[in-house]
Amino acid sequence: MTGQLEARSATTALARLSINQATANSASLPQLIEVCRAAGVSAVGLWREPVRSMGVQQAAAMVTDAGLRVSSLCRGGFFPALDAAERARRIEDNKRAIEEAAGVGTDVLVLVAGGLPDGSRDLGGGRGMVLAGVAALVDHARAHGVRLAVEALHPMFCADRCVVVTLDQALDLAEQFPADVVGVVVDAYHVWWDPNVGEQIRRAGPRILSYQVCDWTTPLPAGVLVGRGMMGAGAIDLRRMTEQVRATGYDREVEVEIFNEELWALPPSELVGRVTSSYLRHVAPWA
Amino acid sequence: MTGQLEARSATTALARLSINQATANSASLPQLIEVCRAAGVSAVGLWREPVRSMGVQQAAAMVTDAGLRVSSLCRGGFFPALDAAERARRIEDNKRAIEEAAGVGTDVLVLVAGGLPDGSRDLGGGRGMVLAGVAALVDHARAHGVRLAVEALHPMFCADRCVVVTLDQALDLAEQFPADVVGVVVDAYHVWWDPNVGEQIRRAGPRILSYQVCDWTTPLPAGVLVGRGMMGAGAIDLRRMTEQVRATGYDREVEVEIFNEELWALPPSELVGRVTSSYLRHVAPWA
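Predict the joint structure of the above. Result:
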């Protein structure tokens, strides 16, 4: 009886958990969907490349048939380039990403700004290209019922991956556009260090389109991309941040996105089991 | 004749260059002083450990005899600890650092806050310990004619090295104390990514006690500590930042602090030669 109650309680607690596909980087999409379904996970966050190689419609059908939702599609963006024709090509590619998001059944396209163009030191210029890029997508996004979620990445990625590095900066950008089309991602890994993150989350309010969690562990590996840890393994006060996000009224999925080679080496079912138990312990009670 | 003019011009341009001892990590202090003197470098930034192993007075005499100045002593700080007795021990150690700074002939002691205590996720608490630590040092610093320079480190060091991660945050802390005792370091490597760094440098104004330069290069190495590049090798717009610092009236040394294993492997004279030529090209014209 206790076991049944606990099982029901866990199912409820998992109702908003989404596992980002990159967390299970070694699993195929069918494998990920099957282990998520079996584990009671409610949603998945998808990436463009595997979705496109399977076919957008087929990926959408597979998720729906398993009774899951798609919480977001990763990712558009990467706007800065020195050559105007290249910038235009990237905007066209972002329009395809918008269509893919709609096609796969999510209203959230995550945008990672992109880093400095090769050899450039003009951060202000790069940031201006990001603003222009988002502006060029707003109508297309609205027409497809997709919202653009600007993600601030940790400042250690500023040069080579994302010139948008704080939640305030993402909001300064997003607020230049209607709230029903442009919002932000709050990814705990990227913003936890910010002395003003609590105020920024309050400011973000209904602009928060995605809340992502993992943990900050040290030492960082070479390249710093795949050093993320399971929730509870690191320095981030996930309880506090989750409460701050909830206080804004956020009721969308909580997406677990962990880039970690040790986790990628696990069988998908074990990986998803670890994610759900870590999520239930360190995030769900406050989500 | 042109050669003589250029030589005089370079000497003038080097008048404010200081080479931090960590940049020449493989050189002994006597070696560093000799190559700096020979190259026309005006000052050195010293570290506590090598100064103490040589003896504070002897280190001071060696620098002075070579006609050099000491721009700063690295470093005090590392305040957060869960145990009150341990925090008190660290404050005592910082008092020794103040005395060593005075003894070695500099009025600037660089403070690196310290990371989260082991197992702690309480960033606010850790930051409070830093504030309390600085407060406990102000009288001792003033009595020794030493100014405490709070350094914001890049947010990628927040967990394990320095919970002070933006210049604004360093200023919020410093401004709780008199400007003649507590100021800040502006280290280009640590703050270049910040969308508001220009405003923060203006705000810092006369609180800037040290301006440090190197460059941001990618990919970052494992552990991310020794991935700094020579000025001009990376993404930082050093001209712009140097102009911003100069606009505050800053006229102290410009200290080159590069943690880089390839540079450490060079003979000290070649390393210092590279530093001076990079400084003359990428920093000095705007300093």
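The first helix of chain B runs from residue 2 to 13.
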